[in-house]
Sequence to fold (265 residues):
Amino acid sequence: RKKMTIPDMLLMKQEGRKVTVLTAYDYPTARLVDAGGVDAILVGDSAGVVFSGHENTLPVTMDEMLYHVKAVVRAKPKALVIADMPFMACQSGEIEALKNCGRMLQEGGAEAVKIEGGSNMARIIRAITEMDIPVMGHVGLTPQSVHRMGGYKVQGRKDQAERILEDAHAVQEAGAFAVVLEGVPAKLAARITEMLDIPTIGIGAGPACDGQVLVIHDILGLCEKYSPKFVKRYADLAPLITEAARQYVSEVKDGTFPTEEHSFS
Ligand code: KIV
Ligand code: NA
Fold:
Protein backbone atom coordinates (compact mmCIF):
# COMPACT_ATOMS: atom_id res chain seq x y z
CA ARG A 1 0.00 0.00 0.00
CA LYS A 2 1.18 3.47 -0.97
CA LYS A 3 1.38 6.38 1.51
CA MET A 4 -1.84 8.43 1.46
CA THR A 5 -1.50 12.09 0.49
CA ILE A 6 -3.76 15.15 0.33
CA PRO A 7 -3.94 15.08 -3.51
CA ASP A 8 -4.87 11.36 -3.32
CA MET A 9 -7.85 12.25 -1.16
CA LEU A 10 -9.16 14.84 -3.63
CA LEU A 11 -8.70 12.29 -6.43
CA MET A 12 -10.80 9.78 -4.46
CA LYS A 13 -13.80 12.11 -4.64
CA GLN A 14 -13.30 12.69 -8.37
CA GLU A 15 -13.13 8.93 -8.95
CA GLY A 16 -16.04 8.14 -6.62
CA ARG A 17 -13.99 6.04 -4.17
CA LYS A 18 -15.13 6.29 -0.53
CA VAL A 19 -12.74 7.81 2.02
CA THR A 20 -12.42 5.88 5.30
CA VAL A 21 -11.30 7.57 8.51
CA LEU A 22 -10.99 6.29 12.09
CA THR A 23 -9.65 8.02 15.17
CA ALA A 24 -6.60 6.80 17.10
CA TYR A 25 -4.79 8.37 20.05
CA ASP A 26 -1.89 5.98 20.64
CA TYR A 27 0.82 3.95 18.88
CA PRO A 28 -0.64 0.43 19.03
CA THR A 29 -4.12 1.50 17.92
CA ALA A 30 -2.67 3.55 15.06
CA ARG A 31 -0.76 0.46 13.85
CA LEU A 32 -3.85 -1.74 14.08
CA VAL A 33 -6.26 0.59 12.26
CA ASP A 34 -3.61 1.30 9.61
CA ALA A 35 -3.27 -2.45 9.04
CA GLY A 36 -7.06 -2.43 8.58
CA GLY A 37 -6.56 -0.14 5.60
CA VAL A 38 -8.01 3.23 6.64
CA ASP A 39 -7.21 6.16 4.36
CA ALA A 40 -6.72 8.61 7.23
CA ILE A 41 -6.23 8.51 10.98
CA LEU A 42 -7.79 11.42 12.84
CA VAL A 43 -6.13 12.15 16.17
CA GLY A 44 -9.39 13.60 17.46
CA ASP A 45 -9.94 15.79 20.48
CA SER A 46 -12.55 13.11 21.28
CA ALA A 47 -9.48 11.78 23.15
CA GLY A 48 -10.57 14.16 25.91
CA VAL A 49 -13.71 12.09 26.41
CA VAL A 50 -12.86 8.48 25.43
CA PHE A 51 -9.20 8.52 26.56
CA SER A 52 -9.03 11.09 29.38
CA GLY A 53 -12.55 10.74 30.78
CA HIS A 54 -13.67 14.36 30.54
CA GLU A 55 -17.37 15.22 30.12
CA ASN A 56 -16.74 16.99 26.79
CA THR A 57 -13.84 18.06 24.55
CA LEU A 58 -13.43 21.59 25.94
CA PRO A 59 -10.66 20.83 28.52
CA VAL A 60 -8.29 19.28 25.92
CA THR A 61 -5.02 21.21 25.54
CA MET A 62 -2.44 21.64 22.74
CA ASP A 63 0.13 19.71 24.78
CA GLU A 64 -2.24 16.77 25.26
CA MET A 65 -3.05 16.69 21.55
CA LEU A 66 0.65 16.84 20.64
CA TYR A 67 1.33 13.87 22.93
CA HIS A 68 -1.34 11.81 21.11
CA VAL A 69 -0.22 12.98 17.65
CA LYS A 70 3.40 12.01 18.31
CA ALA A 71 2.38 8.54 19.52
CA VAL A 72 0.26 7.98 16.37
CA VAL A 73 2.98 9.30 14.02
CA ARG A 74 5.49 6.82 15.53
CA ALA A 75 3.35 4.04 14.01
CA LYS A 76 4.43 5.39 10.56
CA PRO A 77 0.98 4.74 9.11
CA LYS A 78 0.29 4.64 5.36
CA ALA A 79 -2.87 6.53 6.33
CA LEU A 80 -2.82 10.33 6.34
CA VAL A 81 -2.40 11.63 9.92
CA ILE A 82 -4.75 14.52 10.75
CA ALA A 83 -4.37 16.40 14.05
CA ASP A 84 -7.54 17.83 15.59
CA MET A 85 -7.12 21.39 16.88
CA PRO A 86 -8.38 21.61 20.48
CA PHE A 87 -10.76 24.30 21.76
CA MET A 88 -9.17 27.79 21.74
CA ALA A 89 -6.08 26.75 19.75
CA CYS A 90 -7.35 28.62 16.66
CA GLN A 91 -10.05 30.90 18.07
CA SER A 92 -8.04 33.88 19.31
CA GLY A 93 -6.59 35.10 16.04
CA GLU A 94 -4.60 34.18 12.96
CA ILE A 95 -1.12 34.36 14.53
CA GLU A 96 -2.03 32.10 17.44
CA ALA A 97 -3.82 29.70 15.08
CA LEU A 98 -0.83 29.56 12.72
CA LYS A 99 1.56 28.87 15.59
CA ASN A 100 -0.59 26.08 16.99
CA CYS A 101 -1.32 24.43 13.63
CA GLY A 102 2.36 24.71 12.75
CA ARG A 103 3.27 22.89 15.97
CA MET A 104 1.09 19.92 14.96
CA LEU A 105 3.17 19.48 11.77
CA GLN A 106 6.59 20.59 13.06
CA GLU A 107 6.62 18.99 16.53
CA GLY A 108 3.89 16.39 16.13
CA GLY A 109 4.65 15.15 12.63
CA ALA A 110 1.00 15.34 11.51
CA GLU A 111 0.26 15.92 7.83
CA ALA A 112 -2.88 18.01 8.23
CA VAL A 113 -5.01 19.67 10.91
CA LYS A 114 -8.76 19.73 11.51
CA ILE A 115 -10.55 22.86 12.69
CA GLU A 116 -14.17 23.09 13.90
CA GLY A 117 -16.29 25.90 12.52
CA GLY A 118 -17.72 27.29 9.28
CA SER A 119 -18.10 30.88 8.06
CA ASN A 120 -16.93 32.14 11.45
CA MET A 121 -13.56 30.37 11.01
CA ALA A 122 -13.10 30.97 7.25
CA ARG A 123 -10.62 33.83 7.66
CA ILE A 124 -8.44 31.80 10.00
CA ILE A 125 -8.63 28.67 7.83
CA ARG A 126 -7.52 30.76 4.84
CA ALA A 127 -4.49 32.09 6.76
CA ILE A 128 -3.44 28.54 7.64
CA THR A 129 -3.95 26.97 4.20
CA GLU A 130 -2.02 29.89 2.64
CA MET A 131 0.97 28.78 4.72
CA ASP A 132 0.66 25.28 3.20
CA ILE A 133 -0.77 23.63 6.29
CA PRO A 134 -3.58 21.41 4.95
CA VAL A 135 -6.87 21.97 6.79
CA MET A 136 -9.85 19.66 7.14
CA GLY A 137 -13.01 21.60 8.06
CA HIS A 138 -15.74 20.42 10.44
CA VAL A 139 -19.30 21.79 10.28
CA GLY A 140 -22.77 20.87 11.54
CA LEU A 141 -22.65 19.44 15.06
CA THR A 142 -19.34 20.82 16.30
CA PRO A 143 -18.73 19.31 19.77
CA GLN A 144 -16.66 22.32 20.92
CA SER A 145 -19.91 24.35 20.54
CA VAL A 146 -21.75 22.11 23.06
CA HIS A 147 -22.80 25.04 25.26
CA ARG A 148 -24.20 27.13 22.38
CA MET A 149 -26.06 24.09 21.02
CA GLY A 150 -27.35 23.12 24.48
CA GLY A 151 -26.13 19.54 24.06
CA TYR A 152 -25.23 17.24 21.18
CA LYS A 153 -28.17 17.78 18.83
CA VAL A 154 -28.57 17.25 15.10
CA GLN A 155 -27.82 20.54 13.34
CA GLY A 156 -29.22 21.88 10.07
CA ARG A 157 -32.84 20.86 10.41
CA LYS A 158 -35.43 23.09 8.67
CA ASP A 159 -34.39 26.77 8.54
CA GLN A 160 -30.88 25.96 9.86
CA ALA A 161 -30.06 24.00 6.69
CA GLU A 162 -28.92 26.97 4.60
CA ARG A 163 -26.54 28.09 7.35
CA ILE A 164 -24.80 24.69 7.44
CA LEU A 165 -24.61 24.69 3.64
CA GLU A 166 -23.00 28.14 3.73
CA ASP A 167 -20.56 26.97 6.42
CA ALA A 168 -19.44 24.01 4.29
CA HIS A 169 -19.03 26.26 1.26
CA ALA A 170 -17.06 28.86 3.26
CA VAL A 171 -14.67 26.16 4.49
CA GLN A 172 -14.02 24.98 0.91
CA GLU A 173 -13.51 28.56 -0.31
CA ALA A 174 -11.02 29.10 2.53
CA GLY A 175 -8.87 26.31 1.07
CA ALA A 176 -9.79 23.22 3.10
CA PHE A 177 -8.98 19.87 1.42
CA ALA A 178 -11.96 18.06 3.00
CA VAL A 179 -14.76 18.75 5.46
CA VAL A 180 -16.32 16.68 8.24
CA LEU A 181 -20.13 16.84 8.30
CA GLU A 182 -21.24 15.82 11.77
CA GLY A 183 -24.80 15.27 13.01
CA VAL A 184 -26.70 16.69 10.04
CA PRO A 185 -29.74 15.23 8.24
CA ALA A 186 -28.75 12.77 5.48
CA LYS A 187 -30.52 14.82 2.80
CA LEU A 188 -28.63 17.99 3.70
CA ALA A 189 -25.33 16.06 3.74
CA ALA A 190 -26.15 14.75 0.25
CA ARG A 191 -26.83 18.30 -1.01
CA ILE A 192 -23.55 19.57 0.45
CA THR A 193 -21.62 16.59 -0.97
CA GLU A 194 -23.00 17.31 -4.43
CA MET A 195 -22.27 21.04 -4.15
CA LEU A 196 -18.64 20.79 -2.98
CA ASP A 197 -15.52 19.84 -4.95
CA ILE A 198 -13.73 18.66 -1.78
CA PRO A 199 -14.63 15.35 -0.10
CA THR A 200 -17.24 15.39 2.67
CA ILE A 201 -16.47 13.02 5.54
CA GLY A 202 -19.64 12.14 7.43
CA ILE A 203 -20.34 11.11 11.01
CA GLY A 204 -24.05 10.84 11.68
CA ALA A 205 -24.56 12.40 8.26
CA GLY A 206 -25.92 9.53 6.19
CA PRO A 207 -24.59 7.43 3.31
CA ALA A 208 -24.21 10.07 0.57
CA CYS A 209 -21.01 11.60 1.99
CA ASP A 210 -17.74 11.01 0.11
CA GLY A 211 -16.33 9.27 3.19
CA GLN A 212 -17.07 8.30 6.79
CA VAL A 213 -15.35 8.81 10.14
CA LEU A 214 -16.02 7.12 13.50
CA VAL A 215 -14.40 7.14 16.93
CA ILE A 216 -12.35 3.96 17.45
CA HIS A 217 -13.61 3.37 21.03
CA ASP A 218 -17.19 3.45 19.69
CA ILE A 219 -16.69 0.87 16.92
CA LEU A 220 -14.76 -1.45 19.26
CA GLY A 221 -17.35 -1.26 22.03
CA LEU A 222 -14.84 0.08 24.55
CA CYS A 223 -17.13 2.77 25.97
CA GLU A 224 -20.07 1.01 27.55
CA LYS A 225 -21.68 4.21 28.80
CA TYR A 226 -23.52 5.33 25.68
CA SER A 227 -23.74 4.46 22.03
CA PRO A 228 -25.22 7.10 19.71
CA LYS A 229 -27.52 6.11 16.84
CA PHE A 230 -24.90 6.84 14.17
CA VAL A 231 -22.35 4.40 15.60
CA LYS A 232 -22.03 0.83 14.40
CA ARG A 233 -20.19 -1.55 16.73
CA TYR A 234 -17.82 -3.82 14.81
CA ALA A 235 -16.51 -5.48 17.98
CA ASP A 236 -17.53 -5.79 21.62
CA LEU A 237 -14.21 -5.53 23.45
CA ALA A 238 -15.30 -4.18 26.85
CA PRO A 239 -16.49 -7.55 28.25
CA LEU A 240 -13.38 -9.30 26.83
CA ILE A 241 -11.08 -6.91 28.70
CA THR A 242 -13.00 -7.19 31.97
CA GLU A 243 -13.05 -10.98 31.66
CA ALA A 244 -9.28 -11.14 31.00
CA ALA A 245 -8.66 -8.99 34.09
CA ARG A 246 -11.05 -11.11 36.15
CA GLN A 247 -9.30 -14.36 35.11
CA TYR A 248 -5.87 -12.89 35.91
CA VAL A 249 -7.04 -11.73 39.35
CA SER A 250 -8.58 -15.12 40.05
CA GLU A 251 -5.49 -17.09 38.92
CA VAL A 252 -3.05 -14.98 40.96
CA LYS A 253 -5.27 -15.27 44.03
CA ASP A 254 -5.58 -19.05 43.79
CA GLY A 255 -1.95 -19.66 42.74
CA THR A 256 -2.70 -20.88 39.17
CA PHE A 257 -0.49 -18.09 37.80
CA PRO A 258 2.47 -17.86 37.51
CA THR A 259 3.69 -21.42 36.97
CA GLU A 260 7.16 -22.71 36.08
CA GLU A 261 6.36 -21.90 32.45
CA HIS A 262 6.33 -18.18 33.29
CA SER A 263 9.31 -18.31 35.68
CA PHE A 264 13.12 -18.14 35.35
CA SER A 265 15.26 -20.99 36.71
O1 KIV B 1 -12.59 14.38 17.76
C1 KIV B 1 -13.06 13.58 16.92
O2 KIV B 1 -12.92 12.35 17.04
C2 KIV B 1 -13.76 14.14 15.76
C3 KIV B 1 -14.44 13.21 14.81
C4 KIV B 1 -15.50 12.42 15.44
C5 KIV B 1 -14.91 13.91 13.59
O3 KIV B 1 -13.76 15.33 15.62
NA1 NA C 1 -12.99 16.58 17.34
Remarks:
- The radius of gyration is 20 Å.
- The chain has two domains: 6-234, 237-265.
- Residues 44-46, 57, 84, 143 surround sodium ion (ligand 2) (CB under 6 Å).
- The mean pLDDT is 97.
